[in-house]
Amino acid sequence: MKGNDRLPAPAAPGDGAVLAGPDADRGNGESRLALDQAFDSGTLYALRAAVQAHATEAGLPESRTDDLVIAVHELAANAVRHGAGAGRLRMWEREGALHCQVDDSGSPASAGDAGPDGNVADRWPFLPGHGLWLVRLVADQISVLSGPGGTRATIVFSSGEDPSVSVPG
Length: 169
Prior knowledge:
- The protein is globular and about 35 Å long.
- Helix content is 25%, strand content 25%.
- A five-stranded antiparallel beta sheet has the order 1-2-3-5-4, with helices on one face.
- By secondary structure, it is an alpha+beta fold.
- The protein has helices spanning 44-57, 62-82, 131-138, and strands at 32-40, 86-94, 97-104, 141-147, 150-158.
- The protein has one domain (33-158): 2-Layer Sandwich (Heat Shock Protein 90), CATH 3.30.565.
């Protein structure tokens, strides 16, 4: 993507999404860029392998690593299919969680589909069978911002076990 100014401003903290990027003011040094990789339809396999390796290295449990790989793949596949055919993934660790940001540079057809606040993603379906529905199911947090300049999807996976799974006591 050519410059972050082409996307709408991220939601403010407290809007239910963690959107601070790896280059945000860290103050305490807790953020660390783990992966910065461009992708297209021919490199999705390599992207999945890199995400899995970096998530494992970061200490994400195996079940959560699988969920993260699936979520990143769905977002990247959407960028390839509905965007300009390519995108960029950035993954970083921050405060006990892995954050992944998938950017694409949009498509000319998307400009006319914006919701009232200018976010095209507001009009996307989140129904079973759709990739974004799956991402919402497995990620701890998700934010999707889209406009004429492209789409930015940010997901967060805590480093702990899946909170929706309870262990009998």
